[in-house]
Amino acid sequence: MTSPFTIKTLRFLRALKRNNDREWFRARKAQYEADVRQPMIALIERLAADFKSFAPEFVAEPKVSLYRIYRDTRFSADKTPLKTHAAAHFPMRGLPKGEGGGLYFEIAPAWVWVGGGLYMPSNPQLHVIRAHIAASHPRFHRLVTGGSQDPDELGKLAVFAGVSEFPVRVKCASLAWHTLKAALEGARAPVTTE
To answer: Scanning 4, 68, 80, 178, which has the fewest C-beta atoms within 10 Å of its C-beta?
Structure first.
């Protein structure tokens, strides 16, 4: 897929950072629509089609996914009215707003950020997540260090199946898991991948 974002997207966002006020933006709203908002909608629509094959549990719809350009400044010391990036989130289907895991995408002049996670899980959800991490760690570790490669056993972890062929990447792929495991166990010692 060719990126829907162009140099015009980045130019607009850089200019917005220098001229972050409503009057400036209002005079250039058509440019924002063409160069920032429409490319983000195109990306969301493409992900909607792609998610069907590997992540159908995530919602990718412009009305749900696309973040507004206007900032909520009510409780912020920073009163600039507009965001200087474009972003979208992809929540899990069938859950109330703000519940469950999700994915996030952001583009700004200096970065592209992709993430996933869960925001403020309830205590029962947190216990389930911690138990799943603790139970999955040994399987993940075997996977990235060259142990079991049974595709049925791997599930969605199968994306890491080739990591063991690149020893430097083993540490990168497993450090977060080792850190989570140490945190769940209340370990105080520095975390290593050894």
So the answer is: 68
Q: Which of 108, 89, 115 is nearest to 36 (CA)?
A: 108
Please list the pLDDT of the chain residue by residue as tens digits (194 residues). 689 999 999 999 999 999 999 999 999 999 999 999 999 999 999 999 999 998 999 999 999 999 999 999 999 999 999 999 999 999 999 988 888 889 999 999 999 999 988 888 888 888 888 888 888 878 777 777 776 666 666 677 677 777 777 877 777 777 877 787 788 788 887 877 76
pTM for the full model?
A: 0.73
- 191 inside domain: no
Q: Quote the domain boundaries for residue 30.
A: 7-118
